[in-house]
Amino acid sequence: EGLYGYVESLINEGIDITVSNNKGKTPLMSAAGRLGHSDNSKEHFLTFKLLLDHPDVDVNAKTKFGRTALMDAARGGNVNGVKMLLDKGADPSIRTNSGETAYKMAKERNHKDIMAILKATSKTIFDAVESGNINVLKSLLKSGANVEEATNGEYTPIMLAALQNEVDCVA
Description:
- It is a single chain.
- The chain is an all-alpha fold.
- The protein is 53% helix and 0% strand.
- It is built from eleven helices and no strands.
- The radius of gyration is 17 Å and the shape is elongated.
- The mean pLDDT is 83.
């Protein structure tokens, strides 16, 4: 029966799939983080899809550290998982308690395909700066985006650009 069958039977029994562990990690986050990382990758994918398609799932749920399922999929390098989460409404602009985004996690692991997908979703000035999306950045600045506002009370957009060596965003 395997993992998929086990999770499916728990769901059919009425288990609450929004429940989290003591760190706030949900079943969807665990499944997103395991995509493509084992000999049972097809079964993990099917389990992930089963959880993602559940009507009670919260794709933007956060751990107590602020991590989301999208961050776990991006960090793990799973392009399909990232696309599916975005299609279900996952918010790529969510930051962890320490200010990291899904884009930053993909960049740290050099997952270029995921970086391109997440770059295309830039909607905030911080997203645009972090991903080096100059067109979105220009558009946001023209519409009056606040360049003085800091993330988590720490960095302004220009400070973030300088820290991440996004020279085009500073110029």
